[in-house]
Design brief:
- With about 1200 residues, the chain is of the alpha+beta class.
- It contains 35 helices and 36 strands.
- Keywords: Cytoplasm, Protein transport, Transport.
Length: about 1200
């Protein structure tokens, strides 16, 4: 098997647990030359303001001063220097058992005092030099009980600090200021430690716990420490008791009389007048059946006991122990005369040796532990034996169980609480690790779990079952022979000290500092990558845009210009980041642990280290020459889920979360890309999670894009480079995609799952939305967004390259158009030159034209469209009906030169569309008709006719009517003069039309419907239409000039001659040609009705509305027409047409005239219709005359009657002569 070496080194200091150890002091000189070195142990430790106080079993205090390291050395730690050794005075007969040495050191920073309990004698000292200040107190069992709520270092100094001590079987409250005064005594014998919150203290004896109201001197019994201890059950669960004492003060000497006598402690009327139900709660603990799975009892979910005194839910404990632990002996009793065990060592309470032996094997006296996680709760421990699991119970200030219990693998030897819990805002945590609450317990593990002594860590503030962590400090292999000859492990101490220690973890800064990432193979230049298929015209447009951008930037205000980079800027930035990283790694802790002659800080492991360690475990181990394993994606996803919704606003919290999100997202993405290229199946869940991870972090997008070889050349580093977190840089540099070669088709994107490109597309679109916002946290924003634009364009082109049918829109087509359509100032593409090269290379000329449109490069737009129309490569077939698009675009622009150039080009290709460019009323470029005609004659001769037709027919411009007619005549006459077939076709149409039987269409309809697909024929139809118009500019043409040209072809151009005869008033000749030359009888009738003004016009049908022609003129024309009809050669046609004419238009004929010209041989029946209508007309006229006469007579009578009536009204009048 080939040798395998690890490419990526795991950091040995990286721990995933919530706490890590940092050395505080090593090789402490605990013993002097006169002492037995092997017997001297550390009994207690305190720390305050770089002063380390170590108490030993030799009744000595060692005072060390921590000397800080050099500021430039981030890896070193403070060095402890021994200031002095001191032996506190004590009375040899003060304790009934062996002398433990220094039992407790209690610091009171608020008043700069320290209390030291040494072999039962309490002495007071000043801080920090430990100078004696007050008288000693003999026969003292423990000292503590400082108020955790108000006796902090920042409280008011005048109030002093009230502490609790046990002297002569009484708890004495003592106020320490510049003097020591007794506040009150409470009768509570045999207590071993106390923790106090305001007026409430939780106190422990050797057997049980109780809750004291120190103000009212009342006690509520809680529950026993050992559920097998029958002696503890006497007072458990009883009523609240009054335990006030009138004992006088034991300390009366004043050090200073400058301060008036202090009163008692703060009074609170709150007391306890009810019984507790905790006795019932713990009563069954001694008979609890041990669960085969200890973790299943981590949270029992016990409810708070009922306030009415109902029993609490039993915590059933079986008296039968597991086989490996042996069976519990029969119960016995403990002698009340036996002295109490030495005071225990707890947080904020006593620091003493372990409890003494029990009097009987049935029950073991367990060391009590009391800590206070919140201002209204205490955490107490209970159990059945030293080797059995322990239970932590939370009680509130009313003595009720306040939350679910904790379970310890073994009964703790020491206990410390840390953190304020999740209910506290994370903003209160100065280190950005949130407000999580932890319980740290010292214990020795079972040999089946590896043995060793260490710290078991678990959460106390989570309702859900949390995972326990184990920090081993003394391994099982370090066992030594004990007093009994059995191998034992060294003792392990644990305590929360008064002051905060400053600890530096360089790894935090190494991960969070910004470092420059050099991509190596990525393109770092600013010029566009050349594309072989780029057109020279495209390159010219790119150069022009570049010059315009430079000109625009040169006009920018000086304040807006980017300052040039100073020499050595990168080194300066690295130095700045290094200084910042030192601050990132500075932490604080108040928890210390010790063993032998060494002391460690127990430091809350920074969030970034804990999470990063879990990510490192998930990463594949990179082997020489190959990728050894795959990423554990589930582990990375678990890490991301653990911080989902987490918001940290102070310290390194925000940076830590950002770093973890960036690293996890990059890990998931690079593994997804590698799997795709390797052909490994990828689930939809993996793709969705990876996309969410990318969208949820703010990593420089250039780093993500560089992970895809196809997009790496789009990455622009720029002069400022790419700066990322140190931990993220390591991911990129050691990625297998950057080390090992990949297949040849990787650059083209082939082999990469299109759905992954879809993820990249949505990621880049999301990044583009950040453009212009100040929240973008990349070093070179300009280059970053240029990279994003180029990469997004390339991804869209690759996705849209998949065939979906020519001219049909693909799903990403709209996104591609939206990207290139926006102008630069409205979120458009910033990398214009690169975009041009990409579009050229992908053969997407139409998309390129849209990009030009967004930049208002009209000439380039038209030039690109021209290339497409003329047949150059344009994949996807998007430019449908391109000539129409060119026409619309020319109408919208205002560039006269472009309109002339491309309008003439379009007219040359498509005369109809080209003319519309110059003829459209909405065109923004207005050219004179003469100028347009000259342009068309020069560059598009075939479009001249179209434009003239527009002027004459559309604009009614008489100036160009003769030109248009001349054009038509030239075409038609040239054809007739040069083509015998054309002449034959002309005669054939006449013969065919004349041969048609009635009813038949007009000649105009006939030749239109049977038109031949030749230009000269279409021009002839337009000529007839133009000549036949009776109004407007089209009718203002030179008739005589046209007649001169038509005279040689009058037999071939009969309709034209008819129109011109009518214009000259030669109506008889015109009607003769219509009747005998064409045989178009309906048109002849229309000629009479319209007065001979027009016969070939757009209207259809035989009859038309009379347009202002005098009836007399019409009658005259109908007379001419009747004469022509009567001379038709075909008798049947003659009779049919004449009869029809007289019957339909008889009103225009005189009856006498008609009868005179009709041949006598015609039957009267042929004229019956005309005669009947004429007689009816005569009768009607006679009747109308008679009616009119009668109406006139009646009107005359009415007027006469009115006159007579008026005269009667006026009456007679007399006129006298002058």
């Amino acid at each position: 098997m080939a040798s395998v070496s690890r490419k990526r080194k795991r950091s040995s200091g990286t721990e995933a647990g919530p706490y890590v150890l940092q050395s505080l002091a090593d090789d402490l000189p605990l013993a002097t030359e006169s002492d037995d070195t092997s017997e001297v142990e550390i009994t207690c430790v305190e720390f305050w303001e770089d002063n380390l106080y170590v108490g030993t079993s030799a009744a000595e205090i060692l005072h060390f001063v921590l000397i800080p390291p050099e500021p430039s050395d981030s890896s070193s730690r403070p060095s402890p220097i021994l200031a002095f050794r001191y032996r506190p005075p004590f009375t040899l007969s003060s304790l009934p058992h062996a002398q433990p040495g220094i039992q407790q050191i209690l610091l009171l920073p608020k008043v700069n005092k320290a209390c030291v309990l040494c072999n039962g004698t309490l002495t007071f000292y000043s801080l920090p030099e430990l100078s004696p200040v007050f008288a000693r107190v003999a026969n003292c069992s423990w000292v503590g009980g400082a108020d955790l709520d108000t006796d902090g270092e920042n409280g008011a100094r005048d109030d002093g600090v009230v502490i609790m001590i046990l002297v002569k079987n009484k708890i004495r409250l003592v106020r320490v200021t510049e003097e020591v005064r007794v506040v009150k005594d409470i009768g509570f014998p045999s207590s071993t430690l106390s923790i106090r919150r305001s007026n409430f203290a939780c106190v422990a004896t050797a057997h049980a716990y109780a809750l004291l109201d120190v103000n009212q001197s009342r006690k509520i019994p809680l529950f026993p420490i050992s559920s097998l201890d029958d002696n503890a059950g006497v007072a458990v669960g009883g009523e609240a008791e009054d335990i006030s004492s009138t004992s006088g003060p034991a300390i009366s000497r004043r050090v200073s009389s400058a301060h008036p006598s202090q009163g008692g402690a703060r009074i609170d009327d709150r007391g306890h007048g009810r019984s507790t139900s905790l006795g019932t709660f713990v009563g069954g603990l001694g008979r609890q059946q041990e669960s085969p799975n200890p973790s299943s009892r981590l949270r029992s979910g016990l409810e708070t006991p009922d306030r009415g005194g109902a029993s609490s839910p039993a915590l059933a404990v079986s008296p039968e122990r597991p086989t490996e632990r042996g069976t519990s002996p029969a119960k016995g009793t403990i002698s009340p005369d036996k002295p109490l065990p030495p005071p225990p060592a707890v947080e904020g309470g006593a620091e003493a040796s372990k409890p003494g032996k029990t009097t009987t094997p049935q029950a073991v006296l367990l060391e009590p532990h009391i800590v206070s996680p919140t201002p209204t709760e205490f955490l107490l421990t209970t159990g059945t034996g030293l080797s059995d699991p322990g239970v932590g119970i939370f009680v509130n200030l009313d003595g009720d169980v306040s939350r679910g219990t904790l379970e310890f693998e073994k009964y703790p030897e020491r206990l410390v609480i840390d953190g304020q819990g999740l209910q506290t805002s994370s903003e209160s945590d100065p280190h950005g690790d949130g407000g999580e609450g932890y319980v740290l317990a010292v214990m020795e593990r079972d040999m089946k779990l590896g043995g060793g002594r260490g710290i078991e860590i678990q959460r106390w503030d989570s309702e859900n079952e949390s995972q326990k962590e184990w920090v081993e400090i003394i391994p099982a292999s370090a066992r030594t022979e004990g007093v009994t000859g059995q191998p034992v492990l060294k003792k392990l101490g644990l305590r929360k000290v008064a002051g905060h220690g400053e600890i530096s973890i360089a790894e935090v800064g190494d991960k969070l500092r910004l470092v420059r990432l050099r991509l190596g193979g990525a393109s770092g230049g600013d010029s566009p990558v050349s594309v072989d298929s780029s057109d020279s015209r495209t390159k010219a447009s790119v150069e022009r845009v570049t010059r315009e951008m430079e000109l625009f930037e040169s006009r920018t205000l000086e304040s807006d210009k980017e300052e040039p980079l100073e020499k050595g800027w990168e080194a300066a930035k690295n130095k700045q980041e290094e200084e910042i990283s030192r601050r990132f790694g500075k932490l604080q802790s108040r928890i210390v642990t010790w063993s032998g002659n060494r002391i460690w800080w127990v430091v809350r492991n920074p969030l970034v280290i804990r999470l990063d360690s879990r990510l490192e475990v998930a990463r594949p181990v990179e082997m020489e020459g190959r990728n050894g394993s795959q990423l554990d994606r589930s582990q990375v996803i678990t890490v991301l889920n653990s911080i989902r919704g987490l918001e940290l606003r102070t310290g390194t919290g925000p940076l830590s979360l950002s770093y973890i999100r960036e690293k996890a997202g990059l890990l998931l993405f690079t593994s997804l890309v590698a799997a795709s290229y390797a052909g490994t199946a990828i689930t939809q869940v993996d793709k969705r999670v990876t996309e969410d991870a990318l969208l949820d972090n703010s990593i420089d997008p250039r780093v993500v894009l560089a992970a895809i070889p196809m997009l790496r050349e789009e990455v622009l580093e720029g002069p400022r480079g790419i700066w990322v977190f140190g931990g993220v840089k390591e991911i990129y540099e050691h990625s297998s995609l950057n080390i090992h070669a990949v297949r040849d088709n990787i650059q083209s994107g082939e082999g990469l799952d299109p759905e992954i490109l879809g993820i990249v597309k949505r990621y880049l679109i999301a990044w583009r939305r950040k453009k212009g916002y100040g929240s973008v946290s990349v070093e070179d924003e300009k280059e970053a967004f240029r990279t994003v634009d180029a990469a997004l364009l390339r991804v869209l082109l690759v996705l849209d390259k998949n065939p979906v049918g020519q001219g049909l829109a693909s799903p990403v087509r709209a996104e591609l158009y939206d990207l290139v359509d926006k102008s630069a100032d409205k979120g458009g593409i910033d990398c214009f030159d690169r975009a041009v090269a990409l579009l050229e290379g992908f053969g997407r000329l139409y998309v390129l034209s849209r990009l030009y449109q967004s930049r208002k490069l009209f000439k380039d737009v038209l030039g690109t469209w021209k290339r497409i129309i003329e047949g150059e490569r344009n994949d996807r077939g998007e430019f449908v009906d391109g000539e129409t698009e060119v026409r619309k675009y020319l109408v919208r622009i205002k560039d006269t030169a472009l309109v002339k150039e491309y309008g003439a080009w379009l007219a040359r290709r498509n005369p109809g569309l080209g003319v519309q460019v110059f003829a459209d009323d909405k065109s923004r470029v207005k050219l004179e008709p003469a100028q347009v005609v000259e342009i068309l004659k020069e560059k598009a001769p075939d479009a001249v006719k179209e434009y003239l037709e527009y002027l004459v027919f559309g604009k009614d411009n008489a100036q160009y009517a003769n030109d248009l007619i001349t054009f038509y005549l030239d075409t038609v006459l040239t054809k007739l003069s040069t083509s015998e077939a054309a002449r034959d076709h002309m005669f054939q149409t006449y013969e065919t039309y004349r041969a048609l039987k009635s009813p038949k269409p007009t000649y105009q309809q006939f030749i239109t419907e049977n038109a031949i697909a030749e230009e000269w024929w279409r021009n002839r139809l337009r000529l007839l239409q133009l000549l036949g118009r009776t109004h407007g500019a089209a009718s203002a043409y030179d008739v005589s000039a046209i007649l001169r040209r038509l005279s040689p072809y009058e037999n071939q151009l009969v309709p034209e001659m008819i129109i011109l005869d009518g214009r000259q008033g030669r109506h008889e000749q015109a009607l003769r040609l219509l009747t005998h030359g064409l045989g178009d009888y309906d048109t002849a009738i229309n000629y009479c009705l319209l007065g001979g003004t027009s016969i070939f016009h757009p209207s259809t049908g035989t009859f038309t509305k009379e347009a202002g022609i005098a009836r007399e003129d019409q009658a005259a024309l109908f007379g001419y027409l009747l004469t022509e009809f009567l001379s038709i050669d075909d008798v049947s046609v003659r009779v049919e047409q004449t009869g029809g004419l007289l019957e339909r238009f008889g009103g225009w004929f005189d009856v006498g005239y008609v009868l005179s010209v009709i041949p006598d041989s015609w039957s009267i029946e042929l004229l019956s219709g005309f005669i009947v209508s004429a007689l009816r007309r005569l009768v009607r006229e006679k009747s109308e005359t008679m009616v009119a006469k009668a109406l006139s007579g009646a009107e005359n009578l009415r007027i006469n009657a009115d006159f007579v009536s008026r005269c009667d009204e006026v009456g007679p009048s007399m006129e006298l002569p002058d």
